[in-house]
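[step 3/7] fold_predict: job queued, chain A
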Amino acid sequence: MASDLSVLFEDDDLLAVDKPAGVVVHPTYRNPAGTLMDALREYAREWPVDHRPSLAGRLDKLTSGAVIVAKTAAIHAALQRGLWEKDYLALVHGCVTVERGEIDLRLRVDESDRRRVLASATVGKPSLTRFERIACGGELSLLRCRPLTGRRHQIRVHLASCGWPIVGDPSYRTPWKNDPQLRGFSRQALHAWRVAFDHPVTRLRIAIEAPVPADLRDLLASAFDLESLGL
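[step 4/7] structure written:
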């Protein structure tokens, strides 16, 4: 994948890459090769000996978008301590009637299936997601989501818990009428769109945007006027 690595930003301390949907971030027993980290290690072959790629954030396999990579352990630690703004685009089932809001639900691993996460008002780790409606048409809505905590599957579970499951989500979708166009979308319609943070060395504010990928753009175009959305 290294030859296809899409670099959004790079300097001496860090880089940002655009992860395609379907690519696993770290090697696992089910995905021992072909991961984003494999590509980054190959990309980093010419870096100084004390530099190596370290991810400052993760995305699910079926989520696309911006991932920040530190080049040293010190930069990684500084990024972890910093304040981030992360904005995601999510296409969901259901017409979201409010312009904006917050989802404040605790999250915990499902003991009966540890691949899933459950939402609760009382049990689990505190989790907060802010959202803004960008568009609503028919039985679909496009949301801009900003997680204020970094829990596993946070946006997916929070939206599904509100009755707005993400289109194509294999784990948290609810029964919906069969739409051939949506049924043909092969992954969850979630994209890590924008990220902003203070550079750990220069202290300048860095803002990075990952373009909406073609598959999601085509799906959005079938439901909304992309020009009016500014995408």
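[step 5/7] annotate
Residues 133 and 143 are 5 Å apart (CA to CA).
The radius of gyration is 18 Å.
exit 0
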